């Protein structure tokens, strides 16, 4: 079983920065994808950014140029650097890991962390 523990988040003023971390423990196979999603009140959960085990990244249009996803494979940890934050970035951010065992994918979620951008 895989457990994801998130840290970071909080209240920040517009234009500020935050860093989110997500540490995975348990059996994660070498082929995997780590990512961040967010869900604002009354809205569907959406992908913010993802990174494969090979280092390929993908970003939502709203995140491009402002957010950076990275990972430390030795620590099984994924990070999301949030810069130039806007009020519309306010949401609960969730870490996600997809792990492939050679025949199927397993999907795991972190507990979520609140990011609030407000003056």
Description:
- The protein starts with a strand and ends with a strand.
- With 119 residues, it is mainly beta.
- The protein is built from no helices and eleven strands.
- The protein is elongated and about 45 Å long.
**Radius of gyration from CA coordinates:** 14 Å
Span of the ends, CA to CA: 40 Å
Structural class label: mainly beta
DSSP strand (E) fraction?
over 45%
| Total count of helical runs of at least 4 residues | 0
The unreliable regions are none
String of helices and strands: EEEEEEEEEEE
Helix content: under 10%
Largest sheet: 7 strands, mixed
Instruction: Please tally the β strands and state the result.
Output: 11
Mean pLDDT: 95
Rough outline: elongated
Characteristic terms for this protein:
119 residues, 4-stranded antiparallel β-sheet, mainly beta, 11 strands, 0% helix
Please write out the topology.
Layout: E1 3-7, E2 10-12, E3 18-25, E4 31-39, E5 46-52, E6 57-59, E7 67-72, E8 77-82, E9 91-100, E10 105-109, E11 113-117
Parallel strand pairs: 2-11
Antiparallel strand pairs: 1-3, 3-8, 4-5, 4-9, 5-6, 7-8, 9-10, 9-11
């Amino acid at each position: 079983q895989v457990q994801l523990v998130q840290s970071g988040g909080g209240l920040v003023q517009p234009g500020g920065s935050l860093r989110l971390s997500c540490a995975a423990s348990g059996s994660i196979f070498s082929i995997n994808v780590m990512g961040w999603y967010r869900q604002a009140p009354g809205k569907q959960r959406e992908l913010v950014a993802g990174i494969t085990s090979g280092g390929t990244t993908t970003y939502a249009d709203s995140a491009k140029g402002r957010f950076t996803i990275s990972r430390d494979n030795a620590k099984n940890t994924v990070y999301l650097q949030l810069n130039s934050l806007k009020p519309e970035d306010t949401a609960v951010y969730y870490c996600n890991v997809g792990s492939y065992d050679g025949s199927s994918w397993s999907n795991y979620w972190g507990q979520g962390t609140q990011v609030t951008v407000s003056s």
